[in-house]
Design brief:
The protein is 19% helix and 26% strand. Helix 4 runs antiparallel to helix 13.
C-alpha cells in the first residue's frame, strides 16, 4: 500500500530543471519543472474547498453558455456532493446580484443540473443522476408549496424550467418563510435562458489506485499540469512520472506543488480517506520520487482513529485572530464590579473538517482529563433512541411508552408517546426540582439527603399537568423534566434487553472510538438524563458524528434521517427565543446549527454546514468514590462559568470561518 511510508529522508542537493517536453506521438509524457520564474500569467481568483477549487464568473450567461465556458477552462459547472459544499457555495456567492425573470425576484446563480433531455430526470453535467436525498437529508430543493397545489419545487410549472440554480434569499423575494417556495441555499428550477452568474469547479485532488497515482492539478513554476505516477522499485517506496500534460487551470491558494525538490500532495484520496503526501526527487533524469511522509489530513471524510490529528486553522479556512476571541471568551476572567470572576473552563476543543484546529485546557488539566456531561447526556439518549428505532426495538417515535413501561398501561399515562418524552412534552407534572431530587436526593426528617431510585421516581405517581397535558387540551406542552428522559432510557433497556450503558457501548461508543462511563443512581439504574464521563476530545467524537449526519468512516451509526429530525426545531419555547427544542437537542432558530446543553455549560455545539464542532467542559472534581460512577458513593463537583451565552460564544467561532 502506498500510505505505509512514514520514514523521513534527507534532502538532496538542488537540481534545476528545464521546461516540460511533451511527445505527442506516444502516450508516455515526460514532465520537468522550471526552477526560475517564467512570464507573468493572468491572475484568476480561485477558492479552495476540500479537494476542489472554485472560480466565480460574474459575467452573466445563460445555462448553456455557462456550461460551455466552464468546459473551455478545464472545469465544470458546480456539482454539489455534500451539504457542507452547498453551504460553502451559498457563502461564496453571497454577493451575487443576478436575478431570474421567472425566479420570483430572488438572487440566483447557476448549478450544473438539468433535466432538458428527459423531463423530471435531473442530471449533473457529467451525466450522473442528480438525487438530493443521496447527498443529504437536509433541505436542498425548494421546500415550499410550489406553483401547483401540493407540489414542491422544482416543479417545472412553466414548461421550460429545465436548469437548476441556487437561490441566495427567500423566493419569491420578500415572502414570509412560512409560505415561500424556497429559502436561502435551496435549489430552484428556472428557465435556462436566464442570464446568471455561476461558479466553475475544478477537481484538484489526487488519487491512488492499482499502482497509479493520478495528480489532477500540480503547480510547478507558473505552469499547471496533470501528472500520472506509477510505483517503481527502490529501497523504500518510490514513484515515477509516466505521463504529464500541461493544463490551463488556475493555481488555488492551497495546491499540489513542486518546490525545493519536494513534491507536496495536499489532498490524496486513498481507501476512503484523505492524506497529505511528500515526495522527494531522487533521480532528475528518470523523474523518480521517494515518498518521505504521509499522514491523514483535514477533509469531509476525515475521522479520528485512536488519536486526533491537528491542522492549522488557516488551512481549513478559519481566521486565527477571530478564533482567538472565542478561546478568550471561554478562558479569560470576567470582571464584575471591579472583581475578576473565573469562567471555570476545564477544556475547549474546536474541530473543523475532522481535525483539531484549537484546543486549550485549564492549568492542571490536559487532553486526558475526564470531564462530565450533565444534561448533555440527554442528546446521547436521543441518539440511542434513533438507533433503537432503526434496529426495530422501538416501532417509531409515535409508539406508546406503555408498550415498554407496563406500569403506564392504565390511567393518564396510557397514550403518552416516545415523541412526547423526546420533546419534553409529556404533559405530566414535575415533582419539585426533579433534577436536584434525582441527583442529590430527598431530605429526610433529620435534614440529610437520601438518594432516590430514579426509575421508581420517574414511573410512579405521575399525574397530569392541566396547563401542559395535550389530552386535556393544553396548546403549550413543553416542560423540561429529567424524569421524562429517565423513562426513555428505561424504554430502551426494556425493548433491547440490554442496560443503557451496554447498548450505548455496543451501538455508539465503540463505533466512534469513544471511551465513556455512564453513572448509576445508587439503585443500579443508569441515568439517561445525566452524567456521562469522558474526555473533551471524546465528547467531540459524538459531535462530529452528528455533524456528519450519523456517519463514521462510511459506516452509518445513527440514521441520517434521525440526525436531521432530532436536531430540527420542533418546539418554540418562547417568542423571541434564539433557541428552541428538538428531540433532547437545542436547535438555533436559524436552523443552521444546534447544540447539546449540560449544567455548568458542559456543551457540544455543532454546525453541519460548516463541518464544525466545538466542545466546552467545566472544571470537574469527584467527591467520594467516583471511580464506581454510582451516586451511592460519589458526586460530581463542577463550577458554573461567570458568564456564558451560547450564541455569543458559538457565533464567535462561526464568524472565524471564512468561505473555505
Amino acid at each position: 500500500m502506498l500510505m505505509i511510508a512514514r520514514r523521513k529522508v534527507s534532502k538532496i542537493s538542488d537540481i534545476k530543471f528545464i521546461s516540460a517536453a511533451l511527445n505527442k506521438f506516444i502516450s508516455l509524457c515526460i514532465l520537468t519543472f522550471i526552477s526560475q520564474p517564467g512570464q507573468a500569467v493572468e491572475t484568476r481568483t480561485v477558492t479552495n474547498f476540500d479537494s476542489h477549487a472554485y472560480e466565480i464568473i460574474n459575467q452573466p450567461m445563460d445555462w448553456s453558455e455557462a456550461q460551455k465556458y466552464a468546459l473551455s477552462t478545464g472545469g465544470t459547472l458546480v456539482k454539489v456532493d455534500s451539504f457542507p459544499e452547498n453551504i460553502f457555495l451559498r457563502s461564496l456567492m453571497a454577493e451575487t446580484t443576478t436575478t431570474a425573470t421567472d425566479g420570483g425576484g430572488s438572487k440566483y446563480f447557476w448549478l450544473g443540473g438539468t433535466d432538458s433531455d428527459l423531463e423530471g430526470s435531473w442530471k449533473w453535467t457529467d451525466n450522473t443522476a442528480l438525487t438530493p436525498e443521496s447527498i443529504t437529508t437536509r433541505k436542498l430543493w425548494g421546500q415550499g408549496p410550489g406553483f401547483e397545489n401540493g407540489v414542491s419545487e422544482p416543479d417545472n410549472f412553466m414548461g421550460n424550467q429545465h436548469c437548476l440554480a441556487m437561490g441566495l434569499e427567500i423566493w419569491p423575494a420578500g415572502a414570509p418563510a412560512s409560505s415561500a417556495y424556497g429559502l436561502a441555499g435551496q435549489w430552484n428550477d428556472i428557465s435556462c435562458s436566464n442570464k446568471l452568474s455561476f461558479v466553475v469547479e475544478y477537481d484538484i485532488s489526487a488519487n491512488y489506485e492499482n499502482g497509479i497515482l493520478n495528480v489532477k492539478h500540480l503547480s510547478a513554476g507558473n505552469k499547471s499540469y496533470q501528472a500520472f505516477f506509477q510505483l517503481t522499485p527502490c529501497a523504500t517506496l518510490c514513484l515515477k512520472i509516466v505521463s504529464a500534460e500541461e493544463i490551463s487551470l488556475p493555481k488555488p491558494t492551497i495546491s499540489n506543488s513542486f518546490s525545493d525538490n519536494v513534491l507536496k500532495i495536499e489532498k490524496l484520496e486513498f481507501d476512503g480517506k484523505m492524506y497529505e503526501l511528500d515526495l522527494n526527487l531522487i533521480d532528475s533524469k528518470k523523474l523518480i520520487f521517494e515518498v518521505s511522509n504521509s499522514s491523514l489530513t483535514s477533509s469531509l471524510v476525515t475521522y479520528p482513529d485512536s488519536v486526533w490529528i491537528s491542522a492549522d486553522p488557516e488551512t481549513v479556512g478559519v481566521d486565527k485572530v477571530k478564533l482567538q476571541k472565542a478561546i478568550d471568551y471561554a478562558f479569560e476572567d470576567v470582571v464584575v464590579e471591579g472583581v475578576a470572576k473565573a469562567q471555570n473552563t476545564q477544556g475547549l476543543v474546536i474541530i473543523r473538517h475532522g481535525t483539531i484546529i484549537a484546543e486549550r485546557y485549564a492549568l492542571g488539566s490536559n487532553k486526558d482529563s475526564i470531564a462530565t456531561s450533565w444534561s448533555t447526556a440527554k442528546s446521547f439518549t436521543s441518539a440511542l433512541t434513533g438507533i433503537a428505532i432503526q434496529k426495530g426495538y422501538i416501532a417509531s417515535v409515535e409508539a406508546a411508552v406503555s408498550e415498554f413501561i407496563s406500569e403506564w398501561k392504565e390511567g393518564e399515562t396510557t397514550n403518552i408517546t416516545i415523541k412526547n418524552l423526546l420533546m419534553m412534552s409529556s404533559g405530566l407534572k414535575e415533582s419539585g426540582n426533579d433534577g436536584f431530587t434525582m441527583y442529590v436526593g430527598e431530605k429526610n426528617e433529620e435534614g440529610n439527603y437520601k438518594t432516590v431510585n430514579n426509575k421508581l421516581y420517574s414511573i410512579e405517581n405521575r399525574v397530569a399537568d392541566p396547563d401542559r397535558a395535550h389530552w386535556l387540551g393544553a396548546t403549550y406542552n413543553w416542560n423540561y423534566q429529567n424524569a421524562d428522559v429517565q423513562i426513555i432510557g428505561e424504554s430502551i433497556e426494556r425493548s433491547t434487553g440490554k442496560s443503557l450503558a451496554e447498548f450505548a457501548q455496543a451501538e455508539l461508543f465503540s463505533k466512534i472510538g469513544m471511551n465513556a462511563g455512564w453513572w448509576k443512581d445508587g439503585f443500579d439504574n443508569y441515568m439517561p438524563w445525566c452524567c456521562i464521563d469522558a474526555t473533551t476530545r471524546d465528547f467531540a467524537r459524538f459531535g462530529l458524528l452528528f455533524a456528519r449526519e450519523g456517519k463514521w468512516d462510511e459506516n452509518v451509526i445513527v440514521p441520517a434521517e434521525w440526525v436531521t429530525e432530532s436536531t430540527r426545531l420542533s418546539v418554540v419555547i418562547a417568542p423571541g427565543s434564539k433557541s428552541g427544542y428538538g428531540y433532547l437537542w437545542w436547535p438555533d432558530v436559524s436552523g443552521e446549527w444546534f447544540y447539546a446543553v449540560g449544567s455548568r455549560s458542559n456543551n457540544i455545539y455543532i454546525h453541519p454546514g460548516l463541518d464544525l464542532v466545538v466542545v466546552r467542559n467545566s472544571t470537574l472534581k469527584f467527591s467520594g468514590n467516583g471511580v464506581e460512577k454510582d451516586r451511592a458513593t460519589g458526586v460530581h463537583v463542577t463550577e458554573f462559568p461567570e458568564k456564558w451565552d451560547h450564541h455569543d460564544f458559538f457565533e464567535l467561532v462561526i464568524d472565524a470561518v471564512n468561505k473555505q
